[in-house]
Specification:
The protein has 138 residues and is mainly beta. It contains 1 helix and 9 strands; from the N terminus they run βββββββαββ. It starts with a strand and ends in an 11-residue tail after the last strand.
Amino acid sequence: MSAGKFSFTIEQGATTDFEIIFNDSDGIPVNLRGREAAMQIRNQKNGPILYASLTSSLGDTYTKTSGSSFLSLSGSSLTDPLTSGSIGVYIGHAVTNEFTFDEAFYDLELTNGQERIRLVEGKVRNTSQVTLINPKNG
């Protein structure tokens, strides 16, 4: 199976929250039970600069906060069943606030112990923010 191609935009200083649905070749959602997920955003493929590293391991629970970034195998809602094939991608606004790149690269991999697949890969575009909010002054 070849990795799917998907590029997306991050708005600097804003929360990024979306999901990717993993379906089999018949369009049926893949059961994510027993899998772990990892995603990195880097300056180039195999690049030395790591902008973000998101993971999801078995039994992990997450809370969406301004400083968190993670992958959820229970979708963006954090409550979808593992059988839904839904992988939530979440990067809080305090994390994206630090992004200074224009364009970067990422991939998302799933591991089940015996095998690892690259589910999706592509480019990440970062658009600079204009409104600068001081956290102490709102």
